[in-house]
Amino acid sequence: MASIERTAYPRLGARLTDQELEAGYALSDEETAFVRRHARGDSGRLSLAILLKTRQWLGYFVALSDVPDQVRLHIAEALGLADQNALVDEVGRPAAVHRYRDAIRDRLGSRPFSHGGRPIVIGTVHRVAQTMSDPADLISASVEALAKERIELPAYGTLDRLVGSLRQEIHETLYAGIDATLSDSQRGVLDALLEQPAGAQLNTFSRLKQNPGPPTLKHLRQWTDRLSELDAILDPRPLLADIPHTKIRQFAAEAAALETGDLRDVCRPGRRHSLLLCLLHQTQTETRGQLVEMFIRRMRRTRNRAVERLQESNGVRHDYCFV
Fold it and tell me: Is the pTM of this model over 0.85?
């Protein structure tokens, strides 16, 4: 389950400042008239006002018993109620609570999640999952889409399970697509990365996750040898041409976090091959990038030295260099 704290899913604050109370739970004259028109008695009016303001603030209805005393007292004072503790019994009088919720929906022009919310989440996750991978980001995007359509948010657990299921389906589709581009010989090459060569301390998969020293000019030869070794394995670029770059990076990071035994235990070959291919692609890309950077640094150093020697031969010396 994605941590709710990492998402944009709104929650009731444990303790609010006076400014936060005023900003989120102040009643306008129109709202006060709405409450008095649709509810009777102190308990009814306080309950309706609390449901109205928390629904506006959170995007979903909360249980009256879960509302902090601070919020209840603030709203009761705004209504000028003598009894600031009486609330409608949600268990004993469910019809009254349902009636209040319906009145609020009419006022806000909103509808419950069961009335079209699921297709909104499905469409949103399928769209943003091309550039996002973190479940918390997918949940936040779904919250924003539901709010835009004026649809009430479901319980967090419901949204988390739905987004998690959709994310898994999307990844399974990507795995299948990648695996379909592989020939049997290419699958064999990827599986061989997990094999332990006789007399070797590490297999190729483990070496993929290791750097041959810092990316400095001193280690230029090691990085060059590393790229030659990587390129000799397989060229993953044409096999991943249709996969979003963010997904390649995510799958590569997932593979890098696993041990050899973990990948061997992956029952679905499509997923195992996809993770290995993305890790190979990411490692090749990063190695090339480091080599280019080292080459640029070497060329800059060579040029600066040539300029210094030229200046010295002409009897001129300046305290600057090309950058």
Answer: no
